[in-house]
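Hi, here's the filled form for the chain we discussed.

Project: internal
Contact: R.S.
Residues: 260
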Amino acid sequence: MTAEAPAIHVEHLTRRFGTFAAVDDVSFDVRRGEVFGFLGSNGAGKSTTIRMLCGLLRPTSGRAEVGGVDVSRDPEGVKRRIGYMSQRFSLYELLTVDQNIRFYGGLYGLSGERFARRRMFALEMAGLVGREHVLARTLSGGWRQRLALGCALLHEPPILFLDEPTGGVDPVSRRDFWRLIDDMAQGGTTVLVTTHYLDEAERCDRVAIIHGGRIAALGPTRDLKRALAVRQPSGDPDVLPTLEEVFIDVVSQAGTERVA
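And the returned structure, exactly as it came back:
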């Protein structure tokens, strides 16, 4: 992958379950070091897309490259280049904090000095120094998510997939979690995050609004707001609507087009 190539490249990606198209002809690129958001309601196709890009689900048609690796031809190669955090707490609740970190370090082939360094990184990032022997199941939702993120980053992946990482987490923990995302992006990590929270979408460099398995709109949130503003009766691009108004408008139009 050249320096100019996108971290993630997707062309006409489709996934069908029988006659149902969960993801329908999706195309987009994600730049290196970008925080790219997938905004949509439950069932819109966000998680199915991210599972295909992580090499966990084979596309029905189309193609995608993650870190320069074709997800259909070499899904294991993709997995070695990414970090992935699923919607639900993905660690082992009956293991301690430290046991979870050691388990994932082993999966990623970390050992010696490098593992010691990355273990301390995960503990410090999660704010769990001194709590290494606490069972994961006893942690609050925010601490669990931070621990899961630390484990996903143990092998220092250049590309990180976060599938609704803050679902069920309190607002303060969500804010702190997004500060971590911002820090990672500033350090050069590419982040693709799915969400249905509008305030989280506002923090992304660009957002794709997905509805019915299709991308209905894509761009920086300010550009999406400006596009709606010029179509409103006032026609004043300086009076921007909210992202909620944009989302409702985009989804409504997309629904009409699919019915037509």
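Let me know if anything looks off before we file it.
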